[in-house]
Amino acid sequence: MAGIDNLGQSGLSYIDQLKSLQDKNKPDETTGKQDLKQEDFLSLLTKQLSQQDPFKPVSNDQMIAQMASFATVDGIGKMNTQFENLNASMTSNQALQASTLVGRDVLVPGAAGVKQANDGMAAMVKLPQSINNLMVRVENEAGQLVRTFDVGSKPPGDSRIEWDGNDDNGNPLPAGKYKVRASGMADGENQEFPVSTYANVNSVLLGKGDGNVLLNLAGFDSPVRLAEVLEVGKA
């Protein structure tokens, strides 16, 4: 700016004051926040005007432009605060709506699921085309094959498959984590198909301030994001 370029010795004093103010308002290393406010900009503008070269003063256009810039910065700061408040409000609303899922089954990506005691397990397999003989294999947490069965012909798209919780000899298997795999002949070769499993919702979490709503699922070690849920079972 013209006024600053022609300050001479007084300009050095102004620059030193500017640096001092900047050092004072450096972001807090612990919070990452910056405390530079609009009054600080106005203080700098006043200091600039008091030390400008009287033969080459700052023009009215420059002053207006600077003041407009300060107002814009202040407005952006307020807008960011409003967006943060809106995001927090939307997250709370999502969590309130998600609380209605507690006790219900949801479909989540992944072949690993949890079998409850005296119960079976349901899964969903996505087929690219019609399959004549869809084979289902169930493995325990150690990766051992505990059950194999043929669910017959299935059309393309999502097909629900049910496992009764028994092994190949009809003996009930204990509760725990199991993995469901599905395969069949497609395009002349045996292929594995993507599988998703159902799980029961225990509770709802707000996440870590990132706007995500998380679901604690029965038997799962870590929560699942609400956005990942593919289907919600009937109440």
Structure in words:
The chain has 235 residues and is of the alpha+beta class. It has two domains: 2-98, no CATH class; 106-199, Immunoglobulin-like (Sandwich), CATH 2.60.40.4070. 31% of the residues lie in helices and 30% in strands. The chain is built from four helices and twelve strands, in the order H-H-H-H-E-E-E-E-E-E-E-E-E-E-E-E. The strands form two sheets. Strands 1, 3, 6, 9, 10, 11 and 12 form a seven-stranded antiparallel β-sheet that branches. Strands 2, 4, 5, 7 and 8 form a five-stranded antiparallel β-sheet that branches. Helix 2 packs antiparallel against helix 3 (38-50). It starts with a helix and ends with a strand.
Strand content: 25-35%
- Mean model confidence by pLDDT: 76
Main pleated sheet: 7 strands, antiparallel
- The topology string of helices and strands comes to HHHHEEEEEEEEEEEE
Domain FlgD/Vpr Ig-like: 118-186
Domain FlgD Tudor-like: 93-229
Function: Required for flagellar hook formation. May act as a scaffolding protein.
Organism: Vibrio marisflavi CECT 7928
